[in-house]
Amino acid sequence: MAPQEEDTTSDKHDCDTLPHSLQVWDNAARLSLPWKLRLWLALLVSTILSSTAFVSSMTEPRWVLGGFVMSHMVVFCLSISPHYVLRKGMVSLLHIVCWSPGYYLVMLRLIRVVIVLVSDADGEQQQDLYYYSIWSGVLVVVLSISFVFDFRDASSFLLLLLSDSTTNATNSHRRRGQIHSMIEVSST
Questions:
Q1: How confident is the model at residue 26 (pLDDT cuts 50, 70, 90)?
Q2: What is the rounded distance in angstroms from the CA atom of residue 86 to the CA atom of residue 10?
Q3: What residues are paired with 87 via a beta bridge?
Q4: pLDDT at 173
Q5: Residue of 81, 94, 133 lying closest to 111 (CA atoms)
């Protein structure tokens, strides 16, 4: 009787047993999202990609676009790695790390633009800054909402990986080993 190979694909997508932040984030997971969430992701991506309208004249949209490209490059590299299974919490952590600089710079510039638009009685500068202020306002709102969920998932992901303060050393080592085994792809 030949030894049976473990079926890691059924465990890989078992959403009932894993915490949300440790669930797999791959094409199958993205395609199985509810339509409302896919619509939200389309709004998020289109808002970020619309920064291309301003990259030639302003620095802040370059940071937004650069952070988006960087996060997707890392996600792509991790997805094709044979030794790593991409998890939702890791993607959230990448969003926070890669998107925060652009978010911060756009918020600062938006405050300055609003001050200029309010103080410009003649309306000479309003034409140039009007579209930028709309885009940056929408971007700040969309990324703020996204960051609420990203902070939740990233902190849960990090706590699950690094937590050992509530258990003794043996249980902590066992739990950490179980979590790491869930993250790494079995070599068999």
A1: confident
A2: 15
A3: 24
A4: 54
A5: 133
pLDDT at 83: 87
Q: Rounded CA gap, 149 and 171, in Å?
A: 29
Give the model's confidence band at 106: pLDDT under 50 very low, under 70 low, under 90 confident, else very high: very high
Matching residue, tokens 């890392």? 74
Written as six digits, the tokens of 183 are 């993250």
Residue 119 CA to residue 111 CA, distance in Å, equals 12
The total of other beta-carbon atoms located within 10 Å of residue 21's CB is 23
Please state, for a pLDDT cut of 70, what percent of the chain lies above it.
Answer: 73
For tokens 């998932």, the residue is: 153
Say if residues 21 and 92 touch (Cβ distance below 8 Å).
Answer: yes
The dihedrals phi and psi of 65, each to the nearest 5 degrees, come to -65, -40
Cα distance between residue 144 and residue 153, in whole Å: 14
* pLDDT per residue as tens digits for the range 155-165: 988 888 887 44
Paired tokens of 31 = 């395609």
How does the average pLDDT of the chain come out, rounded?
81
Residue with tokens 């080993």: 177
114 Cβ neighbours under 8 A, 6+ residues apart? 133
**Other C-beta atoms within 10 Å of 7: how many?**
8
